């Protein structure tokens, strides 16, 4: 039988779970952004910029998709691509992957995650971070 006390306890736990759940799925560790494509490429999904003691990382989450191109790389930007932040080749066109931010780069200085074609020097997608 559900009494007033158990009802309030259940309602409180349910409300807390609905607030916490989105952060748990995203990792809840850093700033999130949603990709938009560039240069006629389709790039979608979520990027997370995670700061840690050794600099940080860029996490492309499970919903990430990219339609493919030659030489795609992952980098950061502040209102535009910054080539000094290149983290290496995109390891997968779909799903989750992780990229270590180069030493000496402060993640707080950047507000974008870029997928960049180094061969042709064009953007393939950008996620503006919140």
In short:
InterPro entries: DM13_domain, TAT_signal, TAT_signal_bac_arc. The chain is α+β, with helices and mostly antiparallel strands. It has one helix and nine strands.
Characterize the structure shown.
This is DM13 domain-containing protein. Keywords: Signal. It comes from Litoreibacter roseus. The structure is a single chain. The chain is of the alpha+beta class and about 130 residues long. It has a single domain, classed as Superoxide dismutase, copper/zinc binding domain (Immunoglobulin-like, Sandwich), CATH 2.60.40. Helix content is about 20%, strand content about 35%. It has one helix at about 5-25; strands spanning about 30-35, 45, 45-50, 55-60, 65, 70-75, 95-100, 110-115, 120-130. The strands form 2 sheets. The protein has a 7-stranded antiparallel sheet, with no helix packed on it. It is globular. The N and C termini lie far apart (about 45 Å). Residues about 5-25 have low confidence and may be disordered.
């Amino acid at each position: 039988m559900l009494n007033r006390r158990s009802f309030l306890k259940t309602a409180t736990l349910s409300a807390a779970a609905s607030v916490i759940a989105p952060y748990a799925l995203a990792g809840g560790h850093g700033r999130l952004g949603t990709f938009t494509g560039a240069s006629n490429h389709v790039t979608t999904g979520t990027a997370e910029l995670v700061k840690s003691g050794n600099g940080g990382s860029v996490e492309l989450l499970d919903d990430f998709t990219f339609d493919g191109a030659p030489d795609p790389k992952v980098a950061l930007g502040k209102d535009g691509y910054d080539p000094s932040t290149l983290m290496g080749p995109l390891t997968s066109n779909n799903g989750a992957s992780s990229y270590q931010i180069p030493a000496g780069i402060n993640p707080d200085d950047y507000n974008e995650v870029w997928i960049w074609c180094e061969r042709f020097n064009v953007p393939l997608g950008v996620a503006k971070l919140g």
